[in-house]
Amino acid sequence: MDIIKYDVYRGPNLGVYITVNDSIGLVPMGFAKTKADKLAKYLDIEIHHTAIANTRLIGALSVMNNKGVLLPNTAYQNEYDYLKAETDLEVGVLDTKFNALGNVICANDKGAVVSPWLSKQDCQTISDVLGVEVIQKKIAGFNQTGVVLVANATGAAIHPEADEEDMKTIANVLGTNIEQSSINNGIPYVSSGILVNNHCVVVGSLTSGPEIMMLTRAFLN
Known about the structure:
Low-confidence stretches: none
Strand order of the largest sheet: 1-15-14
Helix content: 25-40%
Number of domains: 1
CATH architecture: 5-stranded Propeller
CATH topology: L-arginine/glycine Amidinotransferase, Chain A
Number of helices: 8
Order of helices and strands: EHEEHEHEEHEHEEHEEEHEEEH
Mean pLDDT: 97
C-alpha cells in the first residue's frame, strides 16, 4: 500500500469533495476525467460522478463504507436513486439537522465513532445502514468527530491532541491501529485532506514528510 499526494480543484482538501470505499469512489459532477482516472488507479476503485444536495461537497455531506452509504436529508431524490441503481450499497438517509454527515461520523466496516450531537435514533440508523457498532464520543474537545478521525480496516489517523484513553476506545471499536497525525502541513482536521481504503492512502499535496511518517505508522504497519 502506497501513500500518494493528490490535489482537488487546485487545493489539498480532497476529503471534502470525495468519498471512497474499497470498490467505488464518489466524485463531483464534471470532475476531470484525467484526475478521476488517476484516483481510480491509485485506490483500485470504479468512479461514479454525482452530487449530494446539489453540491460538490460529497465527502463533507456523506459517509460510506463497504456495506452502505448515508446521505443527509437535504440530498435530492435523483441523487438517492442514482446511488441505489448504480451501486450495490445499502443507501440510507439520516434525518438530522447536522447534515454534513462526513463531519460528524467516522466509519469503517467494523465500527463508527459519531458526534454526541446525534440522537439515539440517528445512531440506530447509522448502525443499520452501515452494519456497524456505533459509539458517540468527542475527540480532542470536538463534537465534529468525522473531521478529526479517518479510518480503513486496519488503521486510523486522529487529531494530534486526542486523549490516549479515547484513542484506545476508538481503536477497539474500529478494530484498528491508531496514530495521532495532522494533514497538509499542520491541519488537525485529518479527514479534510485524505482518502483511504484498503488499497491505498491518498493525501493532499501539502502533506509534509513527518506527517507521511505518522500516516505510514497508522495505515501501513
